[in-house]
Amino acid sequence: MSITVTPTQSAPNRSDFVCEISGIDLAQPLKPADRDAIEEAINRYAVVVFHDQKLTDAQQIEFAGHFGPIHSSAQRARHQSIKHRLERTEIADISNLDGDGKVLDVNARRRLDWLANRLWHTDASFRAIPGALSMLYAHVVPDEGGDTEFADMRAAYDALDAATKKSLEGLVAMHSIFHSRGQLDVTKYTPEELASLPPVPQRLVRTHPGSHRKTLYLAAHASHIEGMPIPDGRLLLMDLMEHAVKPPFVHAHRWRQGDLVIWDNRCTMHRARPFDTTKVRDLRRVTTRDVASTLEQAA
Predict the structure, then answer these.
(1) d(CA 75, CA 248)
(2) How far apart are CA 253 and CA 81, in angstroms?
(3) Taking the alpha carbons of 156, 158, 163, 169 in that order, is the dihedral positive or negative?
(4) d(Cα 47, Cα 263) in Å, to the nearest integer?
(5) Which residue ranges form the domains of the chain, and what is each CATH number?
(6) What is the dihedral of CA 119, 79, 94, 278, to 10 degrees?
(7) Which residues contact residue 181 at a Cβ distance below 8 angstroms, ignoring those fewer than 6 apart?
(8) In this structure, what DSSP letter does residue 275 have?
(9) pLDDT tens-digit profile of 219-260?
(10) How far apart are CA 238 and CA 42, in angstroms?
């Protein structure tokens, strides 16, 4: 095995869920032993950082394919009438650029939709088969701002008291990408766009398959709890979110050009942080599919 796994130094009493992997060029064919070591690191840490990579879209997609089938970009479904900058449907355009590569106008539809990345969320939890791993690659990053924060949902679950854990057993939340956008008053979608991504149910607590640890599974896409009055369910979700993003569970990644960051959506949340949106920020994401709905997996 050629790679080196180095845990990211964290402050005392903070969750240890981030590592860096060095000694590998991800543009080259991936050796089976390295693939297995990367997967082991993902299961152990949840957020894995590679620096100084040089990847084309095709190479990023090929690398991601070693870890499971790939979700097509949901942007294509909810923005059917606009010009897209990237050709490959497996790549989500996490940039502030329009279809011609120019910085988005302040009132552009895609910019308003993209702002929801600033909310704590979990990629593709709004799909019947949700996201597993996300792999975000930095082509261009601003000099200041634009960090990504991650929250360790396994540690957040572990820190709950026994009575709260008991009360969460069996609860199911409904997830919708349009619920998260609605929180920012971004609501102008066509009936066809709304129908393309209907709400789906997901467990509120699930067992992470790689580590066999219990984890919270919620984020801005979660709108309410099945079988519970909507106000009560939303208050519960708000309380759990507030708990999960306390400083001991959160890590901020400061992007450098050439970074590839993998995170496990099954046991983390994340959000983008502010930056000067007149400056170019060009990141591109590939997300693998989970094996099934959380309702079909271990609670």
Answers:
(1) 33
(2) 33
(3) positive
(4) 4
(5) 4-8+16-292 (3.60.130.10)
(6) -90
(7) 113, 116, 187, 189
(8) B
(9) 999 999 999 999 999 999 999 999 999 999 999 999 999 999
(10) 27
